[in-house]
Amino acid sequence: MRFSPEPRISCNDRGMTPTEVSSTTTALPFAEHLERWKGLIYPGSNAQKHFQPHNGSLIAELPSCARSDVEEAFALARSAQLIWAKRPLRERTALVRRFHDLILDHDSVLLDVVQTETGKSRASAFDEVADIALNSRYYANSARRHLAPRRRQGALPFVTSAKEYYCPKGVVGMITPWNYPLTLPITDALPALLAGNAIVLKPDAQAPFSALAAISLLVDAGLPKDLFQVVLGDGPLVGGAIIDNADFVMFTGSTATGKIVAEACGRRLIGFAAELGGKNPMIVLDDAPLDRALQGALAASFSNAGQLCVSIERLYVQDTIYDTFVPAFREAVNNIKLGTALDFSYDMGCLISQEQLDKVVGHVQDAVAHGATVLAGGSARPDIAPFAFEPTLLENVTEAMALCRGETFGPVVSLYRFSTDDEAVALANDTRYGLNASVWGSRKRAQAVAKRIEAGSVNVNEGFTASWASTDAPMGGFKESGVGRRHGREGIVKFTNPQAVATQRWMNIAPLPGMSSGTFASTMVKGLKLLKFLPGRD
Ligand code: NAD
């Protein structure tokens, strides 16, 4: 077994040496768009070079913001929001519909840019394009239903009416990671914009181009000037400035940073939603459709080289089928094709950075040093790309190993046996996380197990796509995997301040003139006894 040879190339902020960085951008398939995309970034006081992870060549130099730049970006967004919030909802939904069509018309350039800045496979990049199309269609079609004023039950029948309105928060600050650089900023931005907000976005500095490409399509669809600001730069500095100026923060990233963001939002008493890390389990019951389960496990474990928040890192297989399932799974994992080209000719791309490679290598080395067995993979592949790592299966993983409980966020899966459904549920729930889970088996049995898993989304006879793509259903974390939800009604209403406007007719809710407080109280007691028979009670 080979173990993590030192990567041959290491370069700049991704850990690469400058000598191996080409300064040309002419070979980029999206070179003609770069100047326009740059123009969408708030001009910062500094500059930072951005490189391709799979070959170390330069993509472009982009502005990087200081705190004062972020404050200015918020001021522009705030003015634009006041006008935007007055535009009728139908104009906003029409814009998102046009954006939906533009995304599908420009899929090829979007796939190129996602692959170029992340090193992921084209199939994983396509998941992002499809996800934006799904979310834009869903929210364009459903925003009216979610945001229309709703009649609520008034305090007293006939004399009190109450209505709930959804007022925009104002300027939403968004902080996003590098792993899904197209879908994560945009699919949360769409409901925020539809709800009448402006946005100041800080994409991760390792992958800012995909969001810029999508925002340029939003501009083509009619997005007003200044409504969507992009600021780049250091995480704590620029992210901190976002939290200090925003009316609501939408954060996606690690649980550790999520706690810092939550504390800072708490100090300002502003709302926030956080989509955080996971250590997601898959359970394969002995009446599962094994071929489908195997394909599902491959996709859920190795999409985007495992750098997927909902990807599977713990695979529990019932002991009656373990010796059939695991050898077949191992063979399939050994057949996964690694590559770097901007086409669909391979299955898995490379990791994003030296830091990410170091983490994956560190987890695997630590596991092996403590007695884990490598069934497949286990090695870095600098012959393919500086940060490539093989899809890896481990057995005999124990509590002594860092990856037993810690999120690897790479292509590494641990295999375990279980004997009963109760045991599988207990093992799956034995984690501080609760983002995603997957259960394979006969439908009723798997559904019964699924409902007992402590996770925000559970896929029955699917790995992650069924719940992720069901955009009408909420998506988010239990336990340390998050606060709040994206998708569905929750994913748009969170960007509003619900306001109750209650109107009283004919009489006040108080004693009638000349009535004593005692008589009022006894009249109310009789009234309240009757009110219990009104429809709408539980
Ligand atoms: P990260 O927490 O290091 O960074 C996320 C973002 O926060 C980046 O833009 C970063 O610059 C910024 N940031 C860093 N420090 C900050 C600070 N002090 N204040 C404000 N912002 C700060 O996460 P990452 O390594 O980029 O992403 C990987 C993690 O994200 C994994 O744990 C993964 O599970 C999680 N993730 C979760 C979801 C989800 O939907 N639940 C989706 C994608 C990724």
Description:
The relative contact order is 0.13. The N terminus is likely disordered. With 538 residues, the chain is α/β, with parallel strands linked by helices. The protein has a seven-stranded mixed sheet, with helices on both faces. The radius of gyration is 26 Å and the shape is globular. The chain has two domains: 241 residues, Aldehyde Dehydrogenase, Chain A, domain 1 (3-Layer(aba) Sandwich), CATH 3.40.605.10; 195 residues, 3-Layer(aba) Sandwich (Aldehyde Dehydrogenase, Chain A, domain 2). Bound molecules: nicotinamide-adenine-dinucleotide (NAD). The site of nicotinamide-adenine-dinucleotide has 28 residues, from helix 8 and helix 9. Nicotinamide-adenine-dinucleotide binds next to helix 8 and helix 9.
What is the CA–CA distance across the termini?
Answer: 62 Å
Relative helix content: 40-55%
Top CATH class of the largest domain: Alpha Beta
Strand order of the largest sheet: 12-13-14-11-10-15-16
What is the overall silhouette?
A: globular
CATH topology of the largest domain: Aldehyde Dehydrogenase, Chain A, domain 1
At the fourth level of CATH, the homologous superfamily of the largest domain is Aldehyde Dehydrogenase, Chain A, domain 1
Largest sheet: 7 strands, mixed
Give me the count of strands: 18
Can you give the mean pLDDT? 94
